[in-house]
User: Which sequence fits this backbone?
């Protein structure tokens, strides 16, 4: 004799079959996360409006959701062993770790905030911690591959891939497609063969969509390239793999009863989540670094800055990697200039001083400040003293800093300013070495990924002994700006020539 398994009777009204308690917990978790990081979401939207490439993070929740649905559909029953006390302890530890990350590290590294965005790690960690409080540790940890994908929102990885792929809008889409490939593999990963097939399918579909965008909509906003190909690829591949698993017989996703929650409801957990969200909402985002970039009438960016009188151009070097970091139509040129005569006020032996002039030029003022200035130089264990504002005339305000390399026992003076004119915008940096000899070493520009990672590791390990923030008050070393007057005189002459359009 065989027994048949009958399907559960359907309710007369569909809304009665919905697990409203589960929905309420989900709603509370999402509301707490949105409220706790409201200033982050507002910051991201504003950054996208200004042309930042950070918009890719809006695709990650969708990709992680597809991955989580795939994990849930293949979930097997497990032993009903749950401990709400352990859930609350682990959830509280997660909230404490999130508070340390958001309240300490994010504010500590405010100079690198726009490129690191450590709060994009804090937000998923907060979401995970609150989910543990509301649903339990074991149900949440069951989706660990989706959580890892969500935590991949660290912009350092994404921007590294964009640079590797060529730093175009097409490269933005290709980098986002990497996350889509991982999400598709997780969603369809019942076996490793299906995971590989889903990953290959996501690459194929995403590449096709990217090609169509490049041909039909070449001038579309970069956000379109970042969101449409990965989401389309994961949706298409997940749907195909879902139907294939069911023999292409039906498309009813809820043809099975929804498992009830195993973790008991806890009012203290809900209250803890709400209180934590309210406290996190009061943590501000770091103050944005806004470098003044005045528009100078008569300034022609292609010819600026001019070599001032009394100085000779010794040589010029261009760094071809600049366009991959700062965007197309961006150049970084270093000029070496030398004084035609010695000046005892600048050197007691009246030696002819040398200055490096770094010129970062772009057709967009936003691109000029895409990466913080002092993270783009090869500096080992650097310390940057607090900046001094200098008026160079014609509405141009420069910042004067002393930069020290503690490991090599070297120091330099930096005078930097931004300006705009016909043809785009520039960041001009005048660099003088404390060593007045002809063979004096100067800091060399290098790709951001290498230099910033090195400095960041030193900052984590040594604390305030390493600092690249030019407006920080952490460095209490009172250093004399030895070459300040020389750089200011050269800078003022360059600004005068640019503003007067004297070529």
Assistant:
């Amino acid at each position: 004799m065989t027994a048949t398994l009958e399907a559960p009777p359907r309710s007369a009204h569909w809304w009665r079959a919905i697990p409203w308690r589960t929905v309420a917990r989900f709603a509370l978790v999402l509301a707490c996360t949105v409220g706790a990081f409201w200033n982050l979401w507002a910051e991201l939207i504003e950054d996208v409006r200004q042309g930042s490439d950070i918009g890719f993070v809006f695709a990650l929740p969708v990709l992680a959701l597809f991955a989580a649905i795939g994990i849930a559909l293949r979930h097997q029953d497990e032993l009903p062993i749950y401990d709400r006390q352990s859930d609350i302890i682990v959830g509280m530890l997660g909230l404490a770790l999130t508070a340390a990350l958001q309240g300490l590290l994010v504010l500590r590294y405010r100079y690198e905030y726009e490129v690191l965005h450590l709060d994009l790690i804090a937000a998923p960690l907060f979401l995970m911690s609150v989910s543990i409080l509301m649903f339990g540790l074991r149900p949440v940890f069951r989706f660990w591959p989706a959580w890892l994908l969500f935590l991949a929102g660290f912009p350092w990885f994404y921007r590294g891939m964009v640079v590797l792929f060529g730093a175009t809008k097409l490269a933005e889409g290709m980098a986002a497609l990497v996350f889509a490939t991982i999400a598709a593999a997780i969603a369809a990963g019942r076996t490793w063969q299906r995971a590989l097939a889903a990953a290959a399918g996501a690459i194929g579909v995403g590449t096709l969509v990217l090609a169509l965008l490049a041909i039909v909509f070449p001038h579309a906003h970069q956000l379109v390239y970042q969101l449409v190909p990965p989401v389309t690829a994961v949706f298409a591949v997940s749907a195909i793999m879902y139907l294939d698993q069911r023999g292409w017989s039906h498309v009813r996703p809820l043809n099975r009863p929804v498992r009830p929650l195993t973790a008991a409801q806890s009012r203290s957990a809900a209250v803890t989540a709400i209180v934590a969200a309210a406290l996190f909402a009061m943590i501000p985002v770091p103050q944005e670094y806004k470098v003044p970039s005045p528009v100078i009438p008569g300034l022609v960016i292609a010819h600026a800055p001019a070599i001032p009188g009394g100085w000779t151009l010794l040589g010029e070097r261009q760094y071809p990697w600049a366009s991959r970091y700062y965007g197309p139509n961006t150049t970084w040129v270093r000029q070496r200039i030398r004084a035609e005569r010695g000046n005892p006020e600048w050197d007691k032996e009246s030696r002819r001083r040398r200055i490096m002039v770094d010129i970062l030029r772009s057709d967009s003022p936003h691109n000029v400040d895409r990466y913080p200035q002092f993270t783009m130089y090869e500096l080992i264990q650097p310390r940057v003293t607090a900046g001094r504002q200098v008026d160079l005339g014609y509405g141009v305000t420069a910042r004067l800093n002393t930069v020290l390399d503690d490991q090599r026992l070297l120091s330099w003076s930096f005078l930097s300013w931004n300006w705009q004119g016909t043809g785009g915008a520039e960041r001009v940096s005048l660099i003088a070495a404390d060593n007045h000899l002809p063979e004096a070493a100067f800091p060399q520009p290098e790709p951001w990924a290498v230099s910033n990672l090195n400095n960041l590791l030193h900052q984590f390990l040594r604390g305030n002994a390493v600092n690249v923030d030019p407006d920080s008050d952490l460095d209490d070393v009172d250093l004399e700006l030895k070459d300040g007057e020389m750089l200011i005189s050269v800078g003022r002459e360059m600004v005068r020539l640019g503003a007067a359009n004297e070529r």
